[in-house]
Specification:
This protein is mostly helical. The protein has one domain. It is 77% helix and 0% strand. Helix 7 packs across helix 11. The radius of gyration is 20 Å and the shape is globular. The model has no long low-confidence stretch (mean pLDDT 83).
Length: 293
């Protein structure tokens, strides 16, 4: 897609979202804050969350280690290794979701509603997701700009260049550079691969991550903490699991919105809509920048 066509598409999306937001503000008389929803009583706890997290980390690290070894031995090109890593990540995400279903539905004997999988007020919650994200975009943009300022500052560059800091971050798997999918999207010229990666980013990842972080983790934390602490802790976990210093603050800010919407709607509909819009917007901006370059 050429830059002019991309600009037209993005402007059309922005115009639609703006009109949608104006219509909702008129319809609900500017009311933004949602009424609290009574928490669904759940039987799983942080032990179950820990088991799911360990399973996820084992599968992810096994895939990364195997692919890294094959690339190092020259049996796979670096590009092919990155493509297979994304395919493995999608498979691991779905396997994690199915294991969560096993814990919630079979072990703990809960219904889908306990995990936030409810169609209650579906269209209304879709609208809440769109409106919430549009109103939250300036905060996300400011947090992203702040991180850019920090990571381009001399003291941060000097800190990241420190040998001890570099070894610690590498050992922990924490990165400061753009994530692999971002690099691949900006460099790839294969349309099928771009479509596959975009589908993973805008559909698979939002659903899988919201099931885990909001439906599963947030419900477990809520058993021990108040609403505000639950929202903050869930957002911290959401930002931290991405293991990227550069994007930590914007992801934390986004996580606050996602957790708030789930806490106030009781379903995953609004968080999934927000997550999908955010990832889809990022994909569009990356492709636009790549096409312009």
């Amino acid at each position: 897609m050429t830059p002019p066509e991309t600009d037209i598409l993005l402007r059309g999306v922005y115009a639609f979202v703006a009109l949608w937001l104006i219509a909702r503000l008129i319809l609900y008389r500017g009311r933004v804050v949602l009424d609290p929803v009574e928490p669904y009583p759940v039987g799983w706890d942080m032990t179950d969350v820990l088991l799911v997290t360990v399973l996820y980390l084992i599968l992810t690290q096994t895939c990364n280690l195997a692919l890294g070894t094959l690339v190092a031995q020259g049996k796979l090109t670096k590009l092919m290794g990155m493509k297979l890593a994304i395919a493995c990540q999608a498979s691991v995400n779905m396997a994690t979701v199915f294991y969560i279903f096993q814990v919630v539905f079979n072990t703990r004997q809960h219904s889908a509603e306990a995990l936030g999988l409810s169609r209650r007020h579906f269209l209304l919650n879709c609208g809440r997701g769109v409106s919430g994200y549009v109103m939250y975009v300036p905060i996300i943009m400011m947090s992203a700009a702040l991180m850019v300022h920090i990571f381009t500052s001399p003291w941060m560059k000097e800190l990241l260049a420190n040998e001890l800091v570099r070894k610690v971050t590498q050992a922990a798997g924490i990165k400061a550079e753009p994530q692999a999918p971002v690099v691949m999207l900006s460099e790839s010229r294969s349309l099928p691969f771009i479509v596959m990666l975009s589908f993973f980013a805008a559909v698979v990842a939002p659903i899988a991550e919201e099931v885990f972080f909001r439906g599963f983790l947030q419900q477990a934390i809520r058993r021990h903490c108040g609403e505000s602490a639950t929202i903050v802790l869930t957002a911290l976990a959401f930002a931290g699991v991405h293991m990227n210093l550069r994007y930590f603050l914007p992801l934390f800010v986004l996580g606050i919105l996602l957790s708030y919407l789930y806490s106030r709607t009781g379903t995953l509909v609004a968080p999934i809509v927000v997550h999908a819009i955010h990832n889809g917007t990022m994909v569009a901006l990356i492709l636009r920048k790549s096409a312009a370059g």
